[in-house]
Specification:
Blueprint lengths: L2 H19 L8 H22 L11 H22 L7 H22 L34 H21 L9 H14 L24 H12 L3 H43 L15 H21 L3 H17 L3 H20 L4 H28 L5 H4 L4 E5 L2 E4 L2 H7 L5 H13 L3 H17 L2 H11 L2 H4 L6 H15 L6 H27 L1 H8 L8 H10 L5 E3 L2 H11 L2 E2 L14 H11 L6 H10 L4 E5 L15 H12 L5 E6 L3 E6 L1 H6 L10 E3 L16 E7 L3 E2 L4 E9 L9 E8 L13 H12 L4 E6 L15 E10 L7 E11 L6 E2 L13 E8 L9
Parallel strand pairs: 1-16, 3-4, 3-5, 10-17
Antiparallel strand pairs: 1-2, 5-7, 6-7, 8-14, 9-11, 11-14, 12-13, 12-15, 15-17
Helix pairs in contact: 1-2, 1-4, 2-3, 2-4, 2-7, 2-8, 3-8, 3-10, 5-8, 6-7, 6-23, 7-8, 8-9, 8-19, 9-10, 9-11, 9-12, 10-12, 11-12, 11-16, 15-16, 19-20, 20-21, 22-23, 24-25
């Protein structure tokens, strides 16, 4: 591209920024405005740094990925500047225009001073290529040579990823993190504060500060403001802009290990296997700070590794800029960098057998990055970090090897990689023997090893788990599967051409294909049938009650506090910008010491059988202005503490409707009702608390009951609606419980399990009974165990409220799976306290008597219905 053409593009970008700022492009579709705002706010300044020489190995084709990182760092620095000056960060939607023009002016002047004559000269296209990756070009000024098939394949991956993300959008359901982030961005725009403490709760105070929200969130807010787009629409569409850049960043690491072919493989591999497959939500979560951080951390690693292969000041500065962009997205990546670069340094020490120049270079770059980031990290720690949220600090996601010997659950490997995680240990020896001279290949070996040494090391887990909690489980995200595939697949294909290595290479390729088959099949289904994917997500989105949310946004005064169930509450700030009493499960800030209390307060305030004194106390404490009751869930949403059910909705509504002077109906569609609270009339209500229909007095004649754990409620009686059924039937059940003492607040769950004997009276060894059963089930195509889990009484009457003089009747339903075998099943039941991410024992993976084994309470006989003949 000529200097004139490049200058015209920069001018067009600045002009587009000005037109957006003054509303002259309002006629464009909102998605086009969002894309333009992203380009001019983030990518345009990012390319200024690329033009100064901070270009990735692989050439200009991969430069947009680095421009993203530089742009995030630059815009984040401007946000911090407004904070230091006491100004609302939202002024940057327009004020950044002259700053970007000044930045480009400096870039142009620098290039002219260096005699480069403009942005299009060969000298500005300098490419740094690791010696061990591809042959060094004859001229260091020559651009990298890309086979047409490689760059077409890579660009096709970027286009397919953008197309898929654009048509489906970011996941917005109540079981995702999107409502949390969008609600925060909406509060940022309303307040001009890049770090609001009242994103959800009007009375949050210091506890509302959230260490999970960095500089990327205000950057998204600025994109929404400049585009004149709703934050929800902006959040949903931005993955279409980011995914192709993520593909290019992944391709950059692939280029480092296998040249252009590796780049093409890595781009596709990232798209199809990130977080499992395209059927998972993770690729479409590209707008999330953690997903952005993942890829910018990878770009930083590419810069560091390229600088090790061919030291250059431009590459070292690029590593610093990309590293700062990563930390701007999320401070967690300070830990990420500490782990991966330390591991790489150890690997280089072993490979070089001494403190070599490469080790010294890596140490110097790491220290410079740490020093550059230290002021921001120190400020963020002092401003917001303080893990006191009981939901977050509860031990979870742990596998106990023995008492007091914890590691992170090995299930996280399958959750994130599927079967493909096996490639890391299987390829380790090959990586070391064939590629240790290349620091990029060494990175593929040392990074997963560092992760394993942290999350599967009991002393380290005991040290870190109280401090970072479930973030330990996220460390598996560091392992670069796409780059590993970029090394493995081309290497095996190349080996097929050699005589002696053909058979092993062919077998290895078949093995890799088998490991990747689930991800590839699932991804293909999503690409071919997006409507099916959207249909699976739609029931748990906010679409079913968006009309009520729209009304609340217009019909309730700004700053109102809305009381509702946790799932509905979670959607209110996202759509309306109003305050709520609670959020659901793990979505409050780690700083919020009252997160669990808020969930339980909302439960008690909406409890149809609570005393009016208790209701008044809670409405007053949280300053509730309106109450929203939602009965539009397709089934009770699976929440940790309590969940709305149709019976709860009917009872709550009937109670509020009896007192219209205190609870004025202002929106009512039959299955969703909003009340405006009148406190004066509420204070006049004098009515005894109604009797709970599912609670009866306990008498000693009923006995103390039985319990697996003496610290948990005991079972008194159990029954199913029928003792014979067929696959696909829905049964109802009841369990009568008694709390032998006052229970603490927590996430209680009831597990009802059904077991039958294995065919042919098979009795595998006890120590391997579970794996053996699963093998037999797979071989026979039928199951011999199934389970139903539910919250006790749906959480409507929390176990923490149960009294020893009460019997609580828990009603539930069981849907008999269609793939279970005929036979007589033993029925077991137990109650347990289970965190959001369950903890297991090592024995639970091998013994049939596992975490969910309970007390035997009956039997159920299953027999398939005879198929009907033709009429």
């Amino acid at each position: 591209m000529s200097a004139r053409s490049r200058l015209l593009l920069v001018g067009a970008g600045l002009a587009a920024h000005a037109l957006l700022a003054f509303g002259a492009l309002a006629f464009l579709p909102v998605q086009a405005r969002i894309a333009l705002a992203f380009l001019v706010l983030v990518m345009l300044p990012g390319f200024a740094f690329v033009s100064l020489g901070a270009r990735p190995p692989g050439g200009a084709m991969l430069a947009p990925g680095w421009a993203l990182g530089f742009g995030v760092a630059w815009l984040g620095a401007l946000v911090l500047a407004t904070r230091a000056l006491g100004m609302p960060f939202t002024i940057l939607a327009t004020a950044s225009l002259p700053l970007h023009a000044l930045l480009w002016g400096i870039v142009w002047w620098q290039l002219r001073q260096k005699g480069r004559g403009g942005l299009g000269d060969h000298a500005t296209k300098r490419v740094f290529i690791a010696r061990s990756v591809v042959p060094e070009p004859s001229s260091t000024d020559a651009p990298a040579t890309w086979p047409r098939a490689a760059w077409v394949a890579m660009l096709l991956a970027a286009a397919v990823g953008s197309w898929n993300a654009g048509r489906l959008g970011a996941p917005l359901g109540v079981h995702t993190d999107s409502p949390d982030h969008i609600g925060t961005i909406r509060r940022m725009l309303a307040s001009g504060d890049a770090f609001p403490r009242d994103a959800f709760f009007r009375d949050a105070g210091r506890e509302g500060a959230d260490p999970r929200k960095g500089l990327w969130h205000p950057e998204v807010a600025l994109i929404a403001k400049l585009a004149a787009a709703d934050p929800l629409v902006t959040w949903s569409f931005l993955p279409a802009c980011l995914v192709p850049l993520f593909v290019l960043i992944a391709a950059g690491m692939g280029f480092m290990v296998r040249g252009p072919t590796g780049a093409a493989v890595a781009g596709w591999a990232w798209l199809l296997t990130y977080g499992g497959s395209l059927q998972e939500q993770y690729v479409r979560e590209a707008v999330f700070a953690t997903k952005l951080g993942d890829l910018l951390a990878l770009a930083t690693a590419v810069a560091v590794i390229a600088d090790l292969s061919r030291p250059a000041r431009a590459l070292r500065l690029a590593a610093l800029g990309l590293g700062l962009g990563t930390l701007a997205a999320h401070v967690y990546y300070a830990l990420h960098f500490a782990m991966v670069f330390t591991a790489l340094g150890v690997g280089l020490l072993i490979a070089d057998r001494r403190w070599s120049p490469r080790v010294a270079r890596l140490a110097g770059t790491s220290i410079l990055l740490g020093l550059a980031a230290l002021p921001y990290l120190a400020w963020r720690v002092s401003q917001s970090y303080g893990p006191v949220n009981a939901i977050h600090t509860e031990t979870q996601g742990i596998l106990w090897l023995a008492d007091g010997v914890p590691v992170v659950s090995i299930g996280v490997l399958w959750d994130w990689f599927g079967n493909a995680w096996l490639l890391f240990p299987l390829a380790a020896l090959w990586l070391w023997r064939a590629g240790r001279a290349n620091p990029a290949v060494l990175y593929l070996l040392t990074t997963p090893l560092a992760v394993a040494l942290v999350i599967f090391d009991p002393p380290v887990v005991r040290l870190l788990e109280p401090r970072i909690g479930y973030l330990l489980m996220r460390m598996v995200w560091m392992a670069p599967l796409a780059a590993l595939l970029a090394w493995v697949l081309p290497g095996l294909v190349e080996a097929l051409r050699r005589g002696p290595a053909r058979v092993p290479a062919a077998l290895a390729l078949l093995g890799v294909a088998w490991l990747l088959k689930p991800a590839l099949v699932d991804s293909a289904l999503v690409l071919a049938h997006p409507a099916a994917q959207a249909a699976t997500e739609r029931p748990w989105g906010t679409g079913p009650w968006v009309d009520a949310l729209d009304w609340m946004k217009q019909g309730l005064p700004a700053g109102s506090v809305v009381l509702s169930d946790p799932a509905t509450s979670y959607s209110v700030p996202m759509h309306t910008g109003l305050y709520v009493v609670t959020l659901s499960d793990q979505h409050s800030s780690p700083n919020d010491a009252h997160a669990l209390e808020r969930i339980l307060d909302a439960r008690d305030a909406l409890d149809p059988w609570a005393s009016w004194d208790r209701v008044r106390e809670l409405l007053r404490r949280h300053g509730v202005d309106a109450i929203a009751l939602n009965n539009r869930f397709p089934s009770p949403p699976p929440l940790d503490y309590w969940t709305p059910r149709p019976s709860w909705f009917a009872a709550s509504r009937a109670r509020f409707d009896r007192w219209p002077a205190a609870f004025e109906r202002v929106f009512d569609t039959g299955d969703f009702v909003v009340y405006r609270v009148h406190r004066e009339a509420l204070d006049m209500i004098d009515e005894p608390a109604p009797v709970r229909p599912f609670v009866a007095p306990w008498t000693p004649a009923e006995g103390p009951g039985r319990s697996v754990d003496a610290h948990l409620p005991a079972i008194l009686r159990f029954g199913l609606s029928q003792d014979r059924a067929s696959q696909g039937d829905t049964l109802t059940g009841i369990a009568d419980w008694r709390a032998t003492r006052r229970m603490t607040a927590g996430s209680y769950i009831v597990a009802v399990r059904f077991d039958r004997a294995l065919p042919d009276s098979a009795r595998p060894p006890r120590l391997f009974a579970k794996p053996a059963r699963k093998l037999i089930e797979r071989a026979n195509g039928e199951r011999y165990r199934f389970r139903e889990d539910h919250l006790p009484v749906g959480g409507a009457y929390g176990v923490d409220l149960w009294r020893p003089d009460q019997v609580v009747r828990d009603s539930f339903t069981v849907v008999v799976p269609r793939d279970v075998a005929d036979g007589t099943y033993r029925v077991q039941i137990r109650m347990l306290v289970q965190p959001h991410y369950a903890n297991y024992r090592l024995s639970d993976y091998f013994l049939d008597e596992d975490y969910y084994t309970g007390l035997e309470v009956g039997s159920l006989t299953l027999q398939r219905r005879a198929s009907g003949g033709a009429n």
